[in-house]
Amino acid sequence: QVQLVESGGGLVQAGGSLRLSCVGSGSIVYISNMGWYRQAPGKEREPVATIDRGGNTNVADAVRGRFAISRDIALNTFYLQMNSLKPEDTAVYYCNALIKPKYFQENDYWGRGTQVTVSS
Predict the structure, then answer these.
(1) Eight-class DSSP state of 43
(2) What tens digit of pLDDT does each residue of 62-111 get?
(3) Cα gap 104→67, rounded to integer Å
(4) Cα–Cα distance between 117 and 11 in angstroms, integer?
(5) Burial (Cβ within 10 Å: 0-12, 13-18, ≥19) of residue 8
(6) Which residues are within 8 A (CB) of 94 and not within 5 positions of it... i.e. 6 or more apart?
(7) Phi/psi of residue 19, each to 5°?
(8) Rounded to whole angstroms, how far apart are CA atoms 41 and 64?
């Protein structure tokens, strides 16, 4: 079974940094169109940063200049480097990717989420 699993979340003080990882596991043929999303309590899930199959990135205005998305396709892994963290960055962060599993059609997959808490 194909899964995406996030890691790297935790508690950090404002101004600090974290790097989130998202690892695809299972019988994966390829992984593409990857992205990070976040959801704060009482708010709608929002995109944070995405990277498409060509390596083009989009970063949300709220995190531009502070966050960066990267990938290692060979490892079925992508990352979110978060610098200069602010309390308003506190949220559950989810990874998302378009994945082609062996024996199944291409589909959109989500991780379970990892909590990021930024204290002031």
Answers:
(1) S
(2) 999 999 999 999 999 999 999 999 999 999 999 999 999 999 999 999 99
(3) 33
(4) 5
(5) middle
(6) 6, 36, 37, 38, 39, 45, 110, 111, 112, 113, 114
(7) -125, 120
(8) 22
